[in-house]
């Protein structure tokens, strides 16, 4: 890839500073060129990635910058749709942090704008770029564990001491399902190629201040290998945990640190087979955010399909919508 994609970031969010700005800076074929923030003090840490960084005082000013090809949006969840549409209408490719929308139906106008403008728009669902998940998918596709019969996943952290956090506030689209349910659901869909049977879903949810802080889901998926059962747990009030397993008739795949690879813990794929056989694949050097930026930039330059299109992300949101519809309070 010879052309370099110039990136801008809307907002000086902590996650942008800690993860995505370094990823854009390190990614092949990408250049971190601009940041939009009204607070010059918040811009200073970003200068470490580009001393000549252009700092715009407003989001609209950055979107009007003719040098910017693509923007990354890490704003609070309830602002994602608005600024994704504005970015597309400004002629920018756009990668928006998950969840891109708060309702599946909101994807439709963005998909229409994407098609009308010919620009790339996507939700930042980075785990499918990580070789950990690609290896797990390879094992399932090859039949290494036989027919998949059950998938279960868990993702939890505890932020109860930070009530001002956007994840704890309903007006900013908080809750464990919007924040991390996309991972527990999406990891099942991606590796198995299966989709949830929405009429089989049941759920239990505990809320605080109008947001879900614990969600337990059960149901069925159907895919290339037939039907299988599914269970997941997300929480913002439990000790940290990340794990996903794919349980088959002839073996089991277990992923450690599947969602914050090499931050929560070492990214591994364990393949458990008969006779106490365990094959372990380790990925200590893979940087999933960098890989995400490279894949997006490559699609911008070459026109090749992006691995996580909006239509795929919409289906995850459809399941989250359904969970909220059927959930019983606890």
Textual characterization of the structure:
With 330 residues, this protein is an alpha/beta fold. It folds into two domains: 5-124 and 290-308, NAD(P)-binding Rossmann-like Domain (Rossmann fold), CATH 3.40.50; 128-284, Dihydrodipicolinate Reductase, domain 2 (2-Layer Sandwich), CATH 3.30.360.10. Helix content is 32%, strand content 31%. It has nine helices and 16 strands. The protein has helices at residues 14-26, 40-43, 59-63, 80-89, 107-117, 131-142, 176-192, 288-302, 310-326; strands at residues 5-10, 30-36, 54-56, 70-73, 93-97, 121-124, 148-158, 195-196, 202-208, 211-223, 226-235, 237-248, 252-256, 268-273, 277-282, 328-329. Strands 7, 8, 9, 10, 11, 12, 13, 14, 15 and 16 form a ten-stranded mixed sheet that branches. Helix 4 packs parallel to helix 5 (107-117). The N and C termini lie far apart (52 Å).
Key features of this structure:
Rossmann fold, 9 helices, 2 domains, 330 residues, ten-stranded mixed beta sheet, single chain, six-stranded parallel beta sheet, alpha/beta, 16 strands, Dihydrodipicolinate Reductase, domain 2
Secondary structure: elements and pairs:
Blueprint: E1 5-10, H1 14-26, E2 30-36, H2 40-43, E3 54-56, H3 59-63, E4 70-73, H4 80-89, E5 93-97, H5 107-117, E6 121-124, H6 131-142, E7 148-158, H7 176-192, E8 195-196, E9 202-208, E10 211-223, E11 226-235, E12 237-248, E13 252-256, E14 268-273, E15 277-282, H8 288-302, H9 310-326, E16 328-329
Parallel strand pairs: 1-2, 1-4, 2-3, 4-5, 5-6, 7-11, 9-16
Antiparallel strand pairs: 7-12, 8-10, 9-10, 10-11, 12-13, 13-14, 14-15
Helix pairs in contact: 1-8, 4-5, 6-7, 7-9
């Amino acid at each position: 890839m010879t052309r370099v994609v110039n990136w801008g970031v809307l907002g000086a969010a902590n996650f942008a500073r800690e993860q995505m700005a370094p990823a854009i800076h390190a990614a092949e074929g990408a250049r971190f060129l601009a940041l939009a923030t009204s607070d010059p003090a918040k811009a200073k840490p970003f200068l470490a990635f580009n001393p000549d960084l252009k700092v715009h005082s407003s989001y609209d000013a950055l979107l009007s910058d003719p040098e910017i090809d693509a923007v990354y949006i890490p704003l609070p969840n309830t602002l994602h749709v608005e600024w994704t549409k504005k970015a597309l209408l400004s002629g920018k490719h756009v990668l928006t942090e998950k969840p891109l929308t708060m309702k599946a139906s909101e994807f439709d106008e963005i998909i229409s704008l994407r098609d009308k403008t010919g620009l790339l728009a996507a939700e930042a669902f980075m785990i499918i770029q990580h070789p950990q998940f690609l290896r797990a998918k390879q094992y399932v596709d090859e039949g290494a564990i036989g027919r998949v019969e059950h998938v279960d996943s868990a993702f939890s952290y505890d932020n109860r001491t930070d009530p001002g956090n956007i994840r704890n506030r309903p007006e900013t689209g908080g809750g464990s399902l919007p924040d991390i349910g996309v991972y527990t659901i999406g990891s099942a869909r991606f590796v198995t190629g299966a989709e949830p049977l929405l009429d089989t879903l049941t759920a239990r949810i505990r809320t605080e201040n109008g947001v879900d802080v614990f969600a337990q889901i059960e149901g069925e998926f159907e895919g290339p290998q037939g039907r299988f059962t599914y269970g997941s747990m997300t929480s913002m009030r439990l000790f940290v945990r990340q794990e996903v397993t794919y349980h088959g008739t002839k073996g089991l795949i277990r992923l450690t640190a599947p969602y914050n690879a090499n931050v929560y813990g070492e990214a591994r794929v364990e393949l458990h087979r008969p006779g106490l056989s365990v094959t372990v694949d380790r990925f200590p050097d893979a940087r999933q955010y960098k890989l995400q930026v490279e894949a997006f930039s490559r699609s911008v330059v070459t026109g090749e399909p992006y691995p996580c299109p909006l239509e795929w992300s919409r289906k995850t949101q459809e399941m989250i919508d359904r969970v909220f519809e059927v959930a019983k309070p606890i």
